[in-house]
Design goal:
Blueprint: E1 7-12, H1 18-28, E2 34-35, E3 39-40, E4 55-56, H2 59-67, E5 71-77, E6 80-85, H3 86-94, E7 99-102, H4 105-114, E8 119-124, H5 128-137, H6 143-156, E9 165-168, H7 172-188, H8 194-204
Parallel strand pairs: 1-7, 1-8, 2-7, 3-4, 8-9
Antiparallel strand pairs: 3-6, 5-6
Helix pairs in contact: 1-7, 5-6
The protein binds guanosine-5'-monophosphate.
Length: 210
């Protein structure tokens, strides 16, 4: 059966576990999804690899990507710029393949404007206290950074209703499979299967009695 490629956007509060969900989704279902790699002006963190985690760019390089129309969307988060390279997403969609974008809210809403059929998922922890605990528990952020991230989450919560699905990340593997089942269900939508419907209609004609 012919498949239509989906653009699946995952956003969520910092510390909600969206990166881990993505990683497990790709591990549990190898070869089924392609992850878009973003460009960013943020400094590389320890353990990150250029071209795997992000395409790390200078401000000048990032600005020229914008000027050349190379980015599908871009946004500023915590004083750094982040953007989705357009060509990779377009190529996959044209090939009928699914592409996953792990991006923040402003970018996600831009994607939805360009591709209204994109599926937007928002990941949240089971509670605000759990979010704070996770941010503190990471041990990588100072108290100020934790407070700043929580303040950002507070503002971001305003946009949650604009997403198509809400994922509560309490038990990680449940959240991963919830994301997987949403994607499967989205593929089954009749509106995404117009060609398949037309084909079975045509094929059934051969049984028509004259
Ligand atoms: P971090 O610096 O922690 O890797 O990411 C900070 C935020 O930027 C996260 O919410 C992440 O999802 C978001 N982000 C990563 N890549 C992109 C992108 O290409 N576009 C947008 N709009 N946000 C992104």
């Amino acid at each position: 059966m012919k498949q239509t490629g989906l653009i699946i956007v995952l956003s969520g509060f910092s510390g909600a576990g969206k990166g881990t969900i993505m990683k497990h989704l790709l591990q549990n279902h190898p070869g089924e999804f392609n992850l878009s790699i973003s460009a960013t002006t943020r400094k590389k963190r320890q353990g990150e690899v250029d071209g795997r985690d992000y395409f790390f760019k200078t401000r000048e390089e990032f600005d020229s990507m914008i000027e050349n129309g190379d980015l599908l969307e871009y946004a500023t988060f915590n004083n750094n710029s982040y953007g989705t390279p357009k060509s990779y997403v377009e190529k996959l969609v044209n090939e009928g393949k699914d592409v996953l974008l792990e991006i923040e809210i402003q970018g996600a809403l831009q994607v939805k404007k360009i591709f209204p059929e994109a599926v937007l998922l928002f990941v949240m922890p089971p509670s605000a206290d759990a979010l704070k605990e996770r941010l503190v528990g990471r041990g990588t952020e100072t108290e100020d950074v934790v407070a700043e991230r929580l303040a950002i989450s507070n503002k971001e919560a305003e946009f949650m209703p604009q997403y198509d699905y809400l994922i509560v990340n309490d038990i990680l593997e449940n959240a991963v499979e919830q994301v997987y089942s949403i994607i499967s269900s989205e593929h089954s939508r009749t509106a995404r299967n117009v060609e398949n419907i037309e084909k079975i209609k045509q094929d059934l004609k051969k049984f028509e009695r004259s």
